[in-house]
Amino acid sequence: MKVQLLGSSVGNAMRDQYVSSYLINRTVAIDAGCLGLHGTPQDQEAVRHLFLTHSHSDHTATLPIFLENAWTPVGDGPRIYGSSETLDGVQRYIFNDVMWPDFIALSKKMRPFLHMCPLQAETEVKVEGLHITPVQVDHLVPTFGYVISDSRSAIIVAGDTGPTNRLWEFAWRTTGLRAIFLEACFPNSMRQLAETSCHLTPEMFCREVAKMPAGVKVVAVHIKVRYRDEVVSELRALGLPDLEIGEGEKEYNF
Ligand SMILES: [Zn+2]
Ligand SMILES: [Zn+2]
Fold it and tell me: How far is CA 150 from CA 29, 31, 142, 162, 218, in A?
């Protein structure tokens, strides 16, 4: 499985992750924070399945741009998956004929821009040779983490979350689990803000790692760019043996 954390800043895409998007095997994406700014329109057209973790803008900001880039007069639109709450938010606050044309209504009258596919928590879907299971995590709005596996290996993209449990139960029962992409938003000094906004600091990150099976790579992502140096040094000070700091544009192979 090839996993790419898409870079989201001009000039320092490796380092600074303002918004979130992942690409898996070039045809499946998780979140659309920066998906609509990635590569060529042909690269974006190749993404046939997009799984949204939740409705927040740093995960959906370029969804309209992605759909516009991916659309062709002869092709079919990509399938957009998420909880019913997330898809409802996308419909109401993005495709509302104010923020953007109502692509959902237009898709019933012309070549579809997209297909909306609501997911049930803990019910697996199969796309492009991948098995993808949404699991609820703990954030300000309903949010899914995703367990993603193929015939060889598995990864977890935890989404935005504060302290959580159910996802780690899935981690323990997932065979071939190679990596968990987990957020570390704020430095330890901003714990109160992390708790209020249902995110993690490095200290809280460490407590989550203790709940996971050992020997699985943990990739720290979603680090607030303004506090990045502080967060990275606090993460490194934890001495976690399997920690890696996420890098934009890098292709991870599992
Ligand atoms: Zn969020
Ligand atoms: Zn976020």
Answer: 15, 20, 26, 27, 19
CA 74 / ligand 2 centre spacing (Å): 34
61-78 CB burial, b ≥16 within 10 A, e <16: bbbbbbbbbbbeeeeebb
pLDDT digits (tens, 9 = 90+) for 115-166: 999 999 999 999 999 999 999 999 999 999 999 999 999 999 999 999 999 9
Contact status, residue 243 vs residue 233, Cβ threshold 8 Å: no
Partners of 134 in beta bridges: 146
Task: Look up the pTM and report it.
Answer: 0.98
**Tokens of residue 201, six digits:** 């600091």
Angle at 29 between CA 21 and CA 10, to 5 degrees: 30
Interval between CA 58 and ligand 1 midpoint (Å): 7
Pairwise CA distance, residues 153 & 180, whole Å: 12
- CA 159/CA 63 separation, integer angstroms: 17
The DSSP code for 151 is: S
Q: What radius of gyration, in Å, describes the C-alpha atoms of the chain?
A: 17
Report the run of H or E that residue 251 belongs to, with start and end.
strand 251-253
User: What is the identity of the amino acid at 168?
Assistant: W
Among residues 79, 103, 65, the alpha carbon closest in space to that of 28 is found at: 79
* Span from the CA of 31 to the centroid of ligand 2 (angstroms): 10
68 SS3 class: helix
Q: Name every residue whose Cβ is closer than 8 Å to that of residue 88 and which is 6 or more positions away in sequence.
A: none
For residue 58, which of 18, 98, 86 has the smallest C-alpha distance?
18
